[in-house]
Design brief:
heterodimer, A: 9-stranded mixed beta sheet, 40 strands, 37% helix, B: alpha/beta, 10-stranded mixed beta sheet, 7-stranded mixed β-barrel, 10 helices, 19 strands
């Protein structure tokens, strides 16, 4: 069926800020969809509040609104742009929900707008628990039986009917407290009684327990004619009980016979046919490990994280095909872009094994519980491809960049068998390492399986790896070529082989070359080589023919990606890598991307001329370099991941394009940098470099507390802390030195002032500064967690001029060619430099979009030898815009139990959104709204602040009071407020008698908690508990006075302005900039 | 033990020996199914061939004997990237190593199967040898490989004696050219008594039993070699009994009615091929295993019309016969291994039988 000719202008809804559970995969899906729609001649209007995305670029869509994702905003956009259709299935759950609300309210039909793809009826059937269950029953697809009970007898009866064990989930309790698994009636009665008491509504859900069953997923695609295919099956190594986003996942499924496989495949097709899905869809099953019994866990009637994974795992462009289907095409009409010979109705056949491992944020949240549950905690993921499971697992491990490179990276060898058995019962991110140790200790597979329910096939694969470790150890320096060849086939890195044998990595490498043990590359082609493929998308194997041909017709550039999304290194670096790749391509270069993140745009098959889906370690990159012999590599766009490879690339003889490695060093090396500051006469906070705690204390005492302690060469302020005492220095140094530090640790005097930031392009002579960003929070809060305002709004012209001048001097002194990011503190009119990063930064996409100056493109041109003046720009600080753009951090604290939420020098936010408007106040309001702070609701708040903040609390409290807020406060805060004439009701601390501050929070009638922790690290359980409970019950919690002030300002604006917002089309800014 | 796969074009792959210690010469083909290796091993249509699995990890879930598609494996050899050293599945009766040993199937593991597939894709299906002899002389072997022709494969895999399976309302005659057991199951579970006839049975013998419907099964080899069978199929065509044919059966019916078949470059073998029903426009994913195909160009449109085509290469995937209760498909609606999407075709066959039976009873 040809496409629907009535569709001419489409509104695509994005997924908003990156949060845990909704990450870069939707930028990938949305970008692919927009490009696919434009290919069909559609006019594309895009809305997404996330400025770090590629999809919000002026060249991806025709009209781009970086506006809060609310129904009201969407209605305004529809009224203004008058699209004929809305595509809601590519923007995650956020996009889907908005599309649904617009449809259900009748707004879409009133404005003659159709919902493209899957219909509202279908979405409701898939998303509404009850309707879904009824639908599944109708077509005979089993769901885990469940029932809501209000008394013990009903629970006992139901459990007797469905069989033990059962899961009990009390309704409306905090983080599922009061629930549990009952294996018999005694346990059931006990848990149920407690659960009924704890539940606010006296209800407990009793459900058949399917924990421990195999978790199998299918990605499926259906067109409007009812043609269905499955694209990929995936098997979770971690059985049901761990969220699939936190599980190690392998594709295709490994332990299912054809009978089981086809049973589930048919069920998936049966379901999507019944739901009448048009587009992509994900179906999750639980399969009993010793029978054919299965349950449908859930269906996502949209493109999801799993579909991004399935796309990259198979090469099948799910989002692209889903978009074409939404326009009315059928699967047999859409050509497979990878082969150019087959059609989208051809199910991918893969001839390799794919392993995905989640990137969990426990290195950022040391206090958080590491346990994995049905609540996803991962911020990102890595994927690897190999011709064996062992190889794929080893590659994925080292792609994580979490100090792991083999199954020994966490050392549990000190645990006894009994201790290991106990420890394995805890399901956390270290489980695979524990299983490895259990195998080494000779614990039998049955025991391990009974505890973990990890299929024995996977346990045996882990055993194959530990046996290889032992063989390498045993052979030691007498390592045989056969063992070396086999170890490489399993993707043991040279460094690990060196560690196990006692040989050096250099020696291993030499032996490999002598014996012709080198990596070769295979193609991902969707068809297991059955047809010739057009798209060079490669992975490495040892022992096989090489398919990647060295090309020589054009100059070649290697673009190093930024690996998995983690706190501190997010989607913005993918934005930079992709734009740099495009810019190189325009300049006539052949582009080669190396990356391992399946969620990103950079790993889409048609971004670069060649894609190597590989770990970003020196050895893996060197293998590619040996084959491709690139004319140069760019590292300045891929975050710290790429920067870290600089030295190794130089050793391989690859020229680093742009700023030289020694200049990058000069910015990071304290002594070299101090010399440059002296030469350029730029002041910075006094400080010193140290390695040990004793040295740190010495420096701190010389400077006087408070001081800032941080490792060098890190991103996102990892390990950065403000210390106020020797004791804290001891503690922080211990944390930083958990891993051996190659580079010294910095100890600086802590200055309190305005924090400002610039991203600039330097051509070696001139510098182009698109604008100055000012942080709302004063120094001490990590720049990534601060609200950032462009243009700078409180500092004097003199400060701005100084910043421009200092930036120029620094860029020149550091011989920057390309991008530079500099952070400053202004104390009065005095400007100090905090840090300089001669590379791209988190704010690059944001500043590019709001100024209309495409600095990645410009930086790439400059790297290729052009001058800023040749590119049509006058060097220096550009004229400030006449609107205000505010970048607001977004956090995912509610997802990570036990994480400390108070802001400090270490970055904690997972994403960001933008508020852009003519006035500061409206921009701020939009930014908060975009971040999900939609107040007021109940007009009640709690203030509990440290003594130093009481003065500001009075001013802020007064303004909230004026807005009609009822203020509750703990004893001393209440006293201070009341004394100043701000009415505050005193509440008891947690330890005191009820009602306490906690009761208030749990009463679900509080809009906001302002809680500033005492200086340094807050040790008080009270403050921590208040903040955690606020977050977990959905109460907004603010831990910095500046943020609180900003919020009240935005609410005052809302009251003045009402609900309607002014819309800004970013695409017009983009045109203005050029 | 080392093993070698030597191709007709002189390519030699060195790997590890698996299964029986036996030297074989065979036609080398590849299958892209990611699960279902046992069904491939026991599919009689692979008689005269050695099969390379493109999925690299084989044997993961062991061998469940009840999933066998015939009483024993019929292929000559098995070629894999890696055999799992430990099977893991609740139904597994034995490991794949044990299975290969038990049925004396030789094979080779540890070779770059993708490289092999690319050669077959580019040069077309060719003959090869699997051997454990390290001192082989290529110049002696290559002429033998080129000369090798598998013969009489249908007779080899067909039942020797007529037998009956299942008990049901409808009487179906199944002509066994190497039938997969799931074709029988698909019929018996649809209320059929299935009488299975040896491939060389005459039409008279079959029709004498007064079947309600005739099923022509899948099978191995070049359909044109089945000269006498084609003559019998002509007679079956002329009878009024409803006929449904799969794979080789489909090709034989085409040849019996004056159409032609040709050998494809490297065939279709796997579980992911889209076929389009020309009557409805609907696309189904199908299991396939064929190296020969009916030439759509040479179909006499007054006799036969294309009913299904392959979405990828446009080749003939099914035919309906004008004025006849006959339809045939190239793909495998019985699946095993592969998708179950087109299983409804058996229902269509049942409807055809019932309609005719009903008509006859009323007449």
């Amino acid at each position: 069926m040809p496409r629907n000719p009535e569709v001419k202008k489409v509104l695509v809804i994005g997924s908003g800020p990156i949060v845990i559970g909704q990450a870069a995969e939707f930028d990938y899906a949305g970008t692919q969809a927009c490009r696919s729609l434009k290919e069909e001649g559609m006019e594309v209007v895009l809305v997404n509040s996330n400025p770090a995305t590629i999809m919000t670029d002026g060249d991806i869509a025709d009209r781009v609104y970086i506006e809060p994702l609310t129904v009201k905003v969407l209605e305004q956009i529809i009224e203004k742009e008058k699209p004929d259709s809305v595509l809601p299935t590519l923007g995650g759950q956020a996009g889907l929900n908005l599309g649904m609300e617009l449809e259900e309210s009748g707004f879409l039909s009133a404005h003659n707008v159709r919902l493209l793809g899957t219909t509202a009826k279908t979405i409701k059937k898939a998303e509404d628990r009850l309707e879904f269950k009824e639908t599944m029953e109708k077509i005979g697809e089993p769901c885990a039986p469940s029932l809501v009970v209000e008394n013990i007898q009903d629970g006992v009866d139901f459990a007797a009917k469905i069989g033990y064990p059962v899961v009990l989930r009390p309704a409306y309790t905090l983080g599922g407290s009061g629930g549990g698994i009952a294996h018999n009636q005694v346990q059931l009665e006990e848990i149920l009684e407690n659960g009924l008491r704890l539940s606010r509504v006296g209800q407990v859900l009793v459900e058949r327990c399917i924990a421990g069953w195999k978790e199998i997923e299918f990605e499926a695609m259906r067109d409007c004619m009812g043609n269905c295919i499955t694209i990929c099956s995936m098997e979770n190594v971690d059985p049901v009980g761990v969220h699939t986003g936190d599980s190690i996942v392998v594709a295709p499924s490994q332990t299912l016979g054809d009978k089981e496989f086809q049973m589930l495949r048919s069920a998936a097709l049966n379901i999507i046919n019944e739901l009448e899905i048009t587009g992509g869809c994900n179906v999750q099953f639980a399969l009993h490990p010793t029978s054919f019994e299965y349950c449908v866990i859930e269906v996502n009637p949209r493109v999801s994280r799993s579909s991004a994974l399935a796309s990259k795992a198979t090469g099948y462009p799910i989002a692209k095909v889903a978009s074409k289907i939404a326009l009315g095409y059928t699967l047999d009409e859409i050509k497979n872009a990878i082969t150019g010979k087959t059609y989208a109705s051809f199910e991918p056949a893969i001839d390799y094994c794919v392993v995905k491992i989640p990137r969990l944020p426990f290195d950022k949240f040391l206090t958080a519980k590491r346990t994995l549950t049905t609540q996803m905690k991962a911020t990102g993921e890595v994927m690897s491809i190999c011709d064996s499971f062992e190889g794929a697992l080893m590659k994925a491990l080292r792609s994580l960049e979490q100090h792991v490179d083999c199954l020994r990276s966490y050392d549990f060898s000190a645990l006894s068998k009994e201790e290991l058995i106990e420890r394995m019962k805890i399901v956390d991110d270290q489980r695979i390492f524990l299983i490895a140790e259990a195998v080494r200790k000779g614990i039998d597979y049955d025991t391990i399986y009974d505890i973990t329910m990890v299929d024995k096939w996977f346990i045996d694969k882990i055993a194959i790896l530990t046996e290889m470790e032992e063989a390498l150890e045993r052979e030691g320096t007498a390592l045989t070529t056969e063992t070396l060849r086999e170890a490489k086939r399993m993707e043991f890195p040279d460094t690990v082989i060196a560690g196990l044998t006692g040989l050096t990595a250099e020696e291993i490498k030499k032996r490999r070359f002598e014996n012709d043990i080198t990596a070769s590359y295979k193609m991902v082609d969707t068809c297991a080589a059955e047809f010739e493929a057009q798209t060079p998308y490669y992975y490495s194997v040892y022992g096989g023919e090489n398919e990647a041909k060295e090309t020589k017709d054009r100059k070649k550039v290697l673009v190093l990606g930024s690996g998995p999304i983690r706190i501190g290194q997010g989607i913005e670096f993918d934005y930079c890598s992709v734009h740099a790749t495009w810019a190189f391509s325009r300049a006539g270069y052949e582009t080669i991307i190396v990356n391992n993140n399946p969620e990103t745009v950079s790993t889409d098959f048609d971004i670069a001329d060649k894609l190597y889906f590989e770990p970003l370690t020196p050895e893996d990159v060197e293998n590619i370099v040996r084959l491709e012999k690139p004319d140069g590599a760019v590292v300045q766009f891929g975050g710290q991941t790429a920067i870290k490879l600089t030295e190794d690339l130089m050793k391989m003889g690859v020229p680093i394009l742009g700023t030289k490695a020694e200049d990058v060093d000069a910015a990071e090396d304290r002594e070299l940098f101090d010399r440059i500051l002296q030469e350029t006469e730029i002041p910075r906070a006094a400080g010193g470099t140290v390695f040990t705690a004793a040295e740190a204390k010495e420096v701190a005492n010389r400077l006087g507390y408070p001081v800032l302690v941080r490792p060098s060469y890190v991103l996102g302020g990892q390990g950065m802390q403000i210390a106020i005492s020797d004791a804290e220095i001891e503690e922080f140094m211990a944390v930083i030195n958990r891993y051996s530090q190659e580079h010294p640790i910095l100890v600086d005097k802590y200055l309190q002032g305005k924090e400002l930031e610039v991203d600039a392009v330097c051509d070696g002579t001139d510098i182009l500064i698109p604008g100055i960003m000012e942080h709302i929070e004063r120094t001490g809060v990590h720049s990534g967690d601060s609200i950032s305002v462009y243009p700078a709004y409180t500092v004097s012209e003199k400060v701005k001029e100084t910043i421009a001048e200092y930036s120029r001097r620094l860029a020149k002194a550091l011989h920057v060619i390309g991008l530079i990011n500099i952070q400053f503190i202004a104390v009065g009119d005095e400007v100090y430099v905090i840090e300089v990063n001669p590379r791209s930064s988190r704010t690059v996409p944001y500043i590019s979009k709001v100024t209309g100056i495409p600095i990645v493109d410009l930086a790439t041109e400059v790297i290729l030898g052009k001058k800023i003046r040749d590119l049509g720009y006058e060097p220096g600080l550009q004229k400030a815009a006449d609107y205000v753009a505010i970048k607001m951090p977004v956090f995912s604290f509610e997802k990570i139990r036990g994480a400390e939420i108070s802001l400090g020098p270490e970055m904690k936010s997972t994403g960001e959104c933008l508020g852009i408007a003519d006035t500061f106040d409206e921009a701020l309001y939009k930014a908060f709204l975009g971040a999900g702070v939609d107040l007021p609701k109940y007009k009640q708040m709690i203030i509990t602040v440290k003594d130093a903040d009481k003065g500001e609390a009075i001013e802020i409290g007064r303004r909230f009071e004026k807005l009609g807020y009822i203020i509750y406060a703990t004893r001393s805060t209440a006293a201070a407020l009341n004394e100043a004439g701000v009415k505050a009701r005193k509440v008891n601390k947690i330890s005191q008698e009820s009602p306490t501050v906690m009761d208030l929070i749990l009463g679900h009638k509080i809009d906001l908690v302002i809680d500033t922790p005492t200086q340094g690290r807050d040790k008080s359980r009270d403050g921590f508990l208040i903040r955690r409970n606020a977050i977990e019950t959905g109460v907004n919690c603010i831990t910095a006075m500046d943020t609180a002030r900003a919020l009240v300002t935005s609410l005052e604006n809302k009251e003045r302005q009402g609900g309607s917002l002014t819309l800004v089309d970013i695409a017009t800014i983009a045109k203005r900039g050029k | 033990m080392k093993a070698f796969l030597i191709l007709e074009d002189g390519t030699v792959f060195a790997g590890t020996h698996i299964g029986a210690v036996k030297e074989i010469i065979s036609e080398i083909v590849f299958n892209t199914s990611m699960a279902g290796y046992l069904e491939v091993l026991t599919d009689p249509s692979y008689a005269g061939q050695a099969v390379c699995m493109t999925y690299p990890l084989i044997g993961n879930y062991g061998v469940c004997l009840e999933d066998m598609e015939s009483s024993h494996p019929c292929l000559d050899g098995f070629i894999v990237r890696e055999l799992s050293r430990m099977p893991s599945n609740f139904r597994s009766d034995m490991s794949i190593q044990e299975f290969l040993d038990k049925y004396e199937i030789p094979g080779i593991a540890g070779i770059d199967t993708r490289a092999l597939v690319k050669i077959l894709r580019e040069k077309g299906t060719m003959n090869g040898m699997i051997t454990t002899r390290e001192d082989f002389v290529l110049d002696d072997i290559l002429p033998k490989l080129k000369a090798y022709r598998p013969g009489k494969v249908v007779e080899r895999v067909s039942t020797r004696k007529k037998y009956i399976a299942g008990e049901g309302r409808r009487k179906v005659a199944l002509v066994d050219f190497g039938t997969k057991s799931n074709i029988i199951t698909c019929l018996t579970k649809r209320d059929c008594t299935v009488t299975v006839y040896p491939a060389l049975s005459t039409a008279e013998e079959i029709l004498a039993d007064q079947p309600d419907g005739i099923m022509l099964s899948n099978g191995p080899g070049d359909p044109k070699e089945c000269v006498s069978v084609i003559e019998e199929v002509k007679k079956l065509y002329r009878s009024d009994v409803p006929i449904f044919a799969i794979c080789l059966g489909h090709q034989l019916m085409a040849l019996a009615t004056g159409a032609d078949t040709f050998k494809m470059k490297y065939g279709h073998r796997g579980g992911n091929h889209p076929v389009k029903d020309l009557a409805t426009g609907q696309v189904y994913i199908s299991a396939q295993n064929h190296g020969y195909v009916v030439d759509m160009e040479k179909l006499d449109k007054t006799v036969a019309k294309p009913a299904f085509v392959n979405v990828n290469d446009g080749t003939c995937e099914g035919v309906t016969y004008t004025g006849k209760n006959i339809f045939t498909v190239q793909f495998h609606p019985e699946a095993c291994s592969g998708p179950l999407d087109s299983g409804f075709l058996f229902d269509r066959f049942m409807e055809m039988i019932d309609k005719r039976k009903g008509g006859m009873e009323h007449a």
